[in-house]
Amino acid sequence: MPQFVASIAIFVVAYVAIASERFPRQAVALLGGVTLVVINVFDLKEAFGFVDWETMGLLFGMFILIEILKEAGFFGWLAATLARRLNYQPTAIFIAFPLMAGLLSGLMDSITVMLFLSALSVRLAKLIGIDPVPLIVAEVCAANTGGAATLVGDPPNVILGTLLGFNFNDFVLNTGPIALVALLITVGIFYAANRPMLKAAHASGSAPLFAMGLGHGIENMTMLRVGLVGFGVAIGLLGTHTTCRRISRSISARQPQRLCQPSSRSSSAASTPVNPSARSMLRAYSSSSACSSWSARLKKPMSSGCLPTGLAGLGWAIRRFSS
User: Fold this and answer.
1) What pLDDT, on a 0 to 100 scale, did the predictor assign at position 188?
2) In angstroms, what CA-CA distances link 205 with 88, 194, 197, 216, 258?
3) Which is nearest to 189 in space by CA: 145, 242, 156, 252?
């Protein structure tokens, strides 16, 4: 009972500290977990068992790949290019930028999308003569909606996918269409609510050429190539995760019997006497922990977090040496 009361007290204190926004959230959460271990609510082994390492690996790898693209200047270049292609028209930008935020959030974390898009949206809104607040709010809502479409769009999707066994295609086929329809409805609602402001901006005709100040270019082509290739391979293999799992299971259904079980004798050699001690040794090996653990590794499909983490490590190494 004292440990239960202490656990509730630590949770409340940590929650209040996080809600106050005066302390780093990750530090507060980690400190709370360490405190629970120190007062023996659970031991260190149990604490590590509570961590979903597959989710951590997937998030870690995807964040590094996205950071490589960010440092290469890809996102700034993409947004500035889209604004130029739209000829800096306020209505077109107000519709296209939230749509871009929603579509990008389906391939990467929505928080990351807004980190690079919000600063550029503020500058662009001032240049074309509209209030940046409705534009950024529309982008945030669109990013949250679009992030629900895929496995990697939002951290809750990653947690649900890894814990419940849903793969990338499950999210795309089931939540993808719903998220796309909701994204279009969201953008339509914001456009309808802000039509007077957009008409006023069109009437003023402010700043088509001032937008040259937005000129974002690619800052590092090597990092851009590494990031795009790594990100594309990660998304592609996450999409084929189900096929890889089926192949792994079909292989594991045959291999363990060949390597870990006694082979059947042919009819010509059936009459040959077998040493009882040799037979018992073979049976003991086939049921040994080494053989069973090897078979279990074959039956277990590749973790969805391994691939992005490995690609991210490779990209980080190339970025390190290229700089």
Assistant:
1) 94
2) 10, 17, 12, 23, 76
3) 145
How far, in Å, are 19, 191, 243, 281, 300 from residue 295 at the CA level? 47, 57, 20, 19, 9
Report how far residue 54's alpha carbon sits from residue 101's, in angstroms, rounded to the nearest whole number. Answer: 26
- Exposed/middle/buried for residue 125 (C-beta within 10 Å: 0-12, 13-18, 19+): buried
**CB 146, CB 114: distance < 8 Å:** no
CB-based contact 35:129 (threshold 8 Å): no
Token duo for residue 243? 């096929």
The predicted pLDDT at position 292 comes to 41
Q: What is the mean pLDDT of residues 32-61?
A: 82
Please state, as a whole number, how many other Cβ atoms lie within 10 Å of the Cβ of residue 320: 8
Task: In whole angstroms, give the CA distance from residue 56 to residue 300.
Answer: 18
Per-residue pLDDT band at 52 (split at 50, 70, 90): confident
Mean pLDDT of 78-103: 87
CA–CA distance, 263 with 282 (Å, rounded to integer) = 10
Q: Which of the four pLDDT bands, split at 50, 70 and 90, describes residue 280?
A: low
Q: Which helix (H) or strand (E) holds 21?
A: none
**pLDDT of the residue at 222:** 82
The one-letter amino acid code at 20 reads S
Distance CA 61, CA 313 (A): 8
SS3 call for 54: helix
Residue 36: CB atoms within 10 Å: 19
